[in-house]
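Standup notes, structure subgroup. Blocker cleared on the N-succinyl methionine input:
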Amino acid sequence: MRITRAEVRWVRMPLVAPFRTSFGTSYDRDTIVLRLVTDAGVEGWSECGAELDPLYSEEWLAGVELVVRDHLLPRLVALGDGLTTAAVKPALEPVKRHFMAKHLLETAVLDAELRSAGMPFATFLGSVKSRVPAGVSVGIMDSTADLLGAVAGYLETGYVRIKLKIEPGWDLEPVRLVRKEFGDILLQVDANTAYTLMDAQHLAKLDDYGLLLIEQPLREDDLRGHAELARIIRTPVCLDESITSARDAATAIAMRACSIINIKPSRVGGYLEARRIHDVAAAHGVPVWCGGMLETGIGRAPNLALAALPGFVLPGDTSASSRYYTQDLTAPFELDRDGCIAVPTGPGIGVEILPDVLASVTDRVIPLV
Ligand code: SMG
Ligand code: MG
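Run returned:
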């Protein structure tokens, strides 16, 4: 397989509601969609997990475009007819990190390869479920009344697990109120690195609320701190930003820095590495779940396939299209009666992109090959 065309599309999708985290508020989902065309005339599509600013991780969209254009894509083009999904990671390995940029390329190549073979992502990955339970991530709100209203709405819609974004000043009280109001629901929190080890005694007060986990309380580079914190609090520590590879996962598990892992294919350079993390975690009996970066249907479809692997035993941030967008770029993903979403069954990512919708939200198209 050889790349005959590659183009990046800058896309801006309005969110149905602003989404506030400890590092900022998003009103739109800005992303880059990559379209590859191969010599067989088959297309491969993928969506970038990065945002406009490097606040979730060190990557940002303009940087992704540059590193793809100048450093990553040329290495894939140089493979000529030798391009396969398996060849992508070794070819890109000399370029340090840039996981979201690498994920963008590897996923489009994998989509093209699987479409050629007529094989769905789920089959390729080894998925064992046809539907996956959907959780929802609830942003920081202006008031606890707004928060309770939002959580009530999501529970009514059918979400089976609620994740609350927290930060200093928005933690114990929102959690207490949600627990009191909604009883025995599956509840967890995500701090996106907003705390330090000096907050350990404060975070230990969350132990009273029976949370499934606390996600990424400390800095991404502080595995030792997470290990220390995990000894002090009873709430299980889950890592997101800290885990960029199967090696990171093995290290964090060995250090007891986490007992649960959030797997985002975009954060770890693609689906092959995501599956390796799943395998390492499964070998250690560590539960994993699938995170999200507010993906459109293009990125959501393969995430659902990943979330159907056997080690994904906790509900993911794999919500329905309507949680994010009034109009998705693919046919909308919907919750069924049990709060599950069906795993796509078509070849490749398994969904068709709606060309008119994509055109209407595309700011510019940049041909790279
Ligand atoms: O895709 O539903 C989603 C968003 C889930 O909370 C979510 N993602 O740290 O896990 C996380 C955040 C990062 C994205 S914030 C824009
Ligand atoms: Mg997170």
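Discussed briefly. The mean pLDDT is 98.
Next: hand off to the docking folks.
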